[in-house]
C-alpha cells in the first residue's frame, strides 16, 4: 500500500507536469475524449499533444505490456492512476473500442504478430475499431449469424451484412464474426476475423434512431477479400473469442453506467426545483420527490455493488455473472432516470426542435428516447435474465 | 350505463377505422414529417371527413351539428389514434368546439356551423409555462381599455395555432396568480396586431405553437362566456378534451400492442418465433389485461360526458390515469419486444411510442389525475 | 323491457311478502348465506323458512328448469331478481358449489336421471357439494392427476388423494376427477364422477394455512366403491366436463371479487384517517393517499370491465377468456387491497392474537395472509397468463 | 469503504450460519410456537452464543466486550435471520446494548458486562400507539417528584419485555406532543410497582409485549444519558437497530429466495421442473438482482456504523428501504412459486413471509425511509 501511495504522488506530479492546461476540468464520460484513427478530424493541438505524451508514457493503455505500447502497470496502480486523473478532472488521452474490447481480446487470444501489428496503434490512437457482431436476422440469437467467409488461397472472401456497428463510418478496422462452416452446429462454424475498413467491397450506412441520428451503422460486405492471418483464434472457433469479448463489453457497460449515474440525484432535484418553481425546501410534488429518492437510492445501490464486485475481483475472485446483473440493473436505472427527467419537465419535455425549448431540454428528450435502446443493445435484458437463471441460479435442465 | 357499442356505434367505429387505415396510414404522417409540410396535415382530408359527418357528431343540431354524442366522437378519435392521424381533432373538435358548445352564445353561432362543415379550424390557447395542467395558473393579462381589452402574455403548446381560423385565449381580467376567479376567455383573430405564432416541433410531429400576445386589442363582444368566470368554462372544456385524448391514446396504445404481438409471431430467434418464449408471453398477457381495464375506463369517461355530467371529472381522471399508465407500459414493452429495430426510425413502433408519450403527458399525467381523484373525493 | 319491469314489480312484491323480517339488511357476499346439506347445524327458523319459501318458488336456482327445482326464469329476469334482492339487502336463500358449479355442469352434461337425482336437492339446500380436482402432484398441471378408479362390475373402486377440497368436511357429495385409463394420453384417461362423502373409504382432514385454520381439506379415497351411474359424461372423457366446470368457476371468482371490492376505497380512507390521526381533509401521508387512489381506480376499472363483459354476454356474445382476465386482475386487486390495509395499520397489523389488537385488526391481518392464496387457487395467475397468451393473443406455435 | 468480508469476518459468518442451521433450524422455532413456550426462546442457547462471544462483538472492551464492530454483529444477525432464530438479538443487543454504548455512563458499566456474558437481557420501550416510527411522538410522561419521577403511559411492541432483566423507557419530562426536546430515557426494574407487562403474539411469533406504566417510581439516578435530551440518544440507537434489522431481514429474505429456487428445481409439473419455465426463470433472476443490490446497501449501513458515523442515517435509510422492498417481492414471489403448498402452515416458506413482513414493517417501512432520505438531503 505504501508503494501505491508513492505511485499516486509520482503520477500526480507527472500528470501536472505534462497535461495541457486547457484539458483540466474537461473529464466527462468514459467515451468522451479522443477516438483517434485515420479518419480523425481532431485539430486541437492540446488534445493531440496529450495523446502523444500519454502514449509515450504508456498510460493510454496502462495495464498493457510495455512492448505493445502499454504502461505495464498493475491493476491497483491503474486504479490509482484513474483516481488521480479523476481528481485532476483530466480526460483519458485516447478512448474507444480498441482499448476496451479488441485490445484485451488480442492480449488473450491474438498471435504475437497480431498483437505487434495492432496493439501499439490502438494505444497511440492511430487506429479506430468497431464491432461487427449483430446481423438483421441475428440479434439476441447472435450465433445464428449468416455473414459468410469462404477460404480462397490465403484469403477469405466475405459476403453479408452487419448492423449496430457503432462508428463504423469513422473506423479503420472492424472485428467481425463470420460463418466459415455452414454445415457445422451453429456455434461451431463461426470465425473471429479482423477486417480493414478500406478493403474493397466494405461499405457503411448510418442508422437513424427514434432519438435522431446515431453512432450506429449498417456495414455491408460484398466479396471483400481478407488475408487469413487476420483470423483471431482458430478458424471455426470464433465463438469462444466472441464470448470473451462480450464479457469485457458487459463489464464496461455496467461500469460506464454506474459512472454516468454520479450526480443524477442533484441534477433531478435541480430540475424539479426549476420546473416546479420551488427554489428551496421540501419539493411540493410528493410523488416526484419519492421518484427522485427511488432513482437516487437505486444509483447508490448500483455504485456500491460495482465497488463490491471490484473489491472481489481484486481479491482474486473470478468474474462471474456480475456483468449480467450490472447490465440489467444499470440500463434500467438509466431508463428510469430519463423517464423521470421527462416527467419533471412536463410539456417542456416534448420538444424535438426549437423554438420554445432550451438546448438542455432538447438534449434531455433525445437522451430519454435514446435510453430505450439501452436494455436492448449489448445483450438485451432478456438474454441477461436467461444467463442469470441458468448460470447463477442453476435453473438449467438438460433435456427440457 | 351502456358500456358496449350499439349497432350504429359499431358501424361508425368500423368505418372510421377503415378510413384511417386506408386514407391515412402511418406512412402518410411520416411523409408529412419528412417533407416538413407547411400545414402538417391535409385540409382536403379534413373536409372529406367533415362530409362524412365526423366533425359534427357531438355538436348540437341548433349549431349545425348532428347531435349524436361525445361517445361517438371518441370512437372517431380512437380510430385517428390508431394510425397516428395528424388532423386537428384535438384543437378544433375537443378544445374549440367543446368550449363553444358550453358557452352557447354568439360565438357558438358564429363558429360551430363552420366547424361542422369543416370550414373553420379553431385553437384554444390556455397553457402557460409552469401551469402544469392547471388552468387557473394564468399569468396572461387582459387590461380593460376603452370599449375592450388589451391582452398580453405568452401561451404555450397551442395545438394547431398555425392553421386556426380563430384562436380562443384565456386571460386574467382580475385577481392574482392562481386565483380561480378573474379569468376570462376571449375570441381573437389570429391575424390581430400584436399576435405572433411561433410554430414548434414536438417529438410526435403534430402541430403546436407558442402564441405571443403583445397588447392585442379585443372588444367586449369578444368575451366568450362570462367576464371573470372563465375558469369553469375552461375546466369543463379541458375535461372533455382529456376524455377525448384518452380515447385517442387508447387507439394509439391498442394499435401499438397489436403491432407488437404481430412482431412476436413473425420474428424468429433461436429457430422459433420469439412469441413462443413464455417470459414474453406473460408480459404480453399482462399488457393485454392492463389495456382491457383501461379501455373500460376510457369508455366510461366518454359515456359520462353524454349521460352523467356530474361524474365527468372523476371518470375523466380515472380514464386518463389508467390509459396513461397503460400507454407507457405498452409502448416501452412494444419497443423492447422489437429489439434493435424497435429503436430505429425505420420501424413504426417508435412513432407510436412518441405519439403516445405526448398524449400521456398532455392534459395531466397519471399522477396528476390520481391526485385530482383524491381531491375530488375529499381525502 | 316492459315485461322485465312488470317482473321487477312482481318480484319486489313477492319478496316483501315472503322474506322474514330479520333477514333484511343481512346480504353480504355471494357465499354468505345458508350452505345447507345433511351436516348443516343451522337452527335459525327464519333462515330455514327463507330457504323453504324461496325453494318452493324456484328462486334459489332461478334460471334452472322448473322440473329440477328451478324458477325457469330468463337470464334477464334472473338479473332483475338479483337486483331486487340487492335493493332489499336480502341474502340468497341457499349458497354453495352445488348451485354455481356442479348444478350448471349437470344441466349441460348430466343424464336425465342424474339431473333428477341431484338438482332438486341442490336447489333446496338439501345436499352440499365440494370439488375434488387438485392433488398433491397435480396443481397447475391438473391433468397429471393420479387418483385411480378401476371398474369392478357396475362400480368403480377409487384410491388416491385430493387436496384443496373446500368444505369437504361439511359436504355430502364431492365431484371428482379420477384416472380410469392410466395408459391413455393424460387428458384422455380421466373420468368425472360424483361420490357420496358417506361412502366407506372416504375421509377428510382439514388444512391449516399461513392465515390459520381454513375451509380447505385433504380428502382421501381408500378402496371407495362408487356406482358407475355416477359418472358424468363418458368414461375417459371427463376432461371436457372438467374444463366446462372450470369456466363457471372462474367467472364466479371474477364476479365474486368484483363484488368484494365495493366500498374498499371508503374502508381504506377510514382506516387511514384512524391510524394517521386525521379525521378530515387531505390525508397527511401522500404515498398512502396515492396508493389508496390506485386501489380505488383499479376496483373501478374492474367493476366497469365486469359490467362490460356482462353486457356483451347479454348481447349473445360467447364468453371467451374474459374469465382469465378477471381472475388475474381481480385476485391481484384483492391482494393489493390487503397489502395496503396492512401498511396503513403499521405495527397494529402485526398481531396474531390479542391482547393489544382489536378483532378487526386481527381479522384484517388474517385476510391479508389469506389473500396470498388468491393468485394460486382456482387456476394460478401463471396458468391464466398462459391461457391469454395462447387463446387471445394467438401466441401458440405448434411444434415449438 | 471495504464492502467484502476479510478472512476473520468470513469465518465468523460461516460459524454463525452453521450454528444457526444446526442448533436452531426452523423446526425449533415452530416447536416453540406450537407449544406456546413461556419464554419463547432458549436462555441456554443464548448463554452458549455468549460463550462464543456473539453477544459481545460490538461492545467496547472497557465494558467487557470484544470491541470488534457492528459489522461483525450484523453477520451474526444475518445468520439468525436465515433460520428465524427467536433469541433476543434485537431487544438486548441492538436496542438495549446500543443505547448503553452510546450513553456510556453508570448504566453502561452496570449492564453491559452482563450482556456480554449472556446473563442480562434488556428491553427498550419507546414505541407508542400512533408514533409510526417517530421517537419524538412520546406521550408517556415522567413527572418530577421529590428525588425522582413518576412514569405513566403505555408502550407498544416492546420486544422481549417479558424476559428482560432491565427495561429502558422513553418518557416526556418536558415539552408537548411531538417536541424533539423534553424526552428522557430511564432505566426501570421490570418488577417495579405499577409496571405491567402484557405479552402479545405477533404473526412471526417472536416475543413482544405492551408495557403499561402507572405511576412507576424512578430516581434521578435512573436517568440514562441526559435529562430532557434523550431523543438523539434514542434516534442513534434506533438507527443502529434498523441497520441490524436490515441485516437480519437480508438473511431471512436471502434464505427464502434460496428455498424458492430449490423448490423451482424440485417441483415438477407438465413433466418438467417448474424452474424450466422461462417466465418463472426471469422472475427469479429479477429477484436475484434486487437482492444483490439490497445486500450492498445492507453491508454499507453496517459498515457506516463502524467507520462513518455521519453517514449512518442516510445509509440506514437506504438499507432499510431497499431490503424492505426486496423482502416483500421475494417472499410474495417465493410463496407464489410454491403454489398451493406455499400458503399452508406445513411448509416453512410461509413462516419466512411472516417474519420478513414483521421486520419490513418495523423500524420504518420503505416509504418511511425514502421520505427520511429526502428530508436528510434537504428536498
Terminal residue distance of chain A: 52 Å
The two chains with the largest interface, and their residue counts, are: C-D, 46 and 44 residues
| Tally of strands of chain A | 9
CATH superfamily of the largest domain in chain A: Butyryl-CoA Dehydrogenase, subunit A, domain 3
Shape of chain A: globular
Radius of gyration of chain B: 21 Å
Strand/helix succession of chain B: HHHHHHEEEEEEEEHEEHHHH
Give the integer mean of the pLDDT values of chain A: 92
How much strand of chain A?
A: 15-25%
Helix content of chain A: 40-55%
Q: Mean pLDDT of chain B, rounded to whole units? A: 97
Describe this structure in words.
The complex is a heterotetramer, with 2 copies of chain A (400 residues) and 2 copies of chain B (379 residues). By secondary structure, chain A is α+β, with helices and mostly antiparallel strands. Chain A has 3 domains: 2-123, Acyl-CoA dehydrogenase/oxidase, N-terminal domain (Butyryl-Coa Dehydrogenase, subunit A, domain 1, Orthogonal Bundle), CATH 1.10.540.10; 129-236, Beta Barrel (Butyryl-CoA Dehydrogenase, subunit A, domain 2), CATH 2.40.110; 240-392, Butyryl-CoA Dehydrogenase, subunit A, domain 3 (Up-down Bundle), CATH 1.20.140. Helix content of chain A is 46%, strand content 15%. Chain A has 11 helices and 9 strands. Chain A has helices at residues 2-18, 45-57, 75-87, 97-109, 112-123, 238-260, 264-276, 286-314, 322-345, 359-371, 381-392; strands at 129-132, 148-152, 155-162, 173-179, 190-196, 202-209, 212-227, 231-232, 351-353. In chain A, helix 7 (264-276) packs antiparallel against helix 8 (286-314) and helix 9 packs antiparallel against helix 11 (381-392). With 379 residues, chain B is of the alpha+beta class. Chain B is built from 11 helices and 10 strands. In chain B, strand 9 and strand 10 form a beta hairpin. The longest helix of chain B is centred in the middle third of the chain and has 37 residues, at 230-266. Chains in contact: A-B, A-C, A-D, B-C, B-D, C-D. The interface between C and D is large, with 46 and 44 residues.
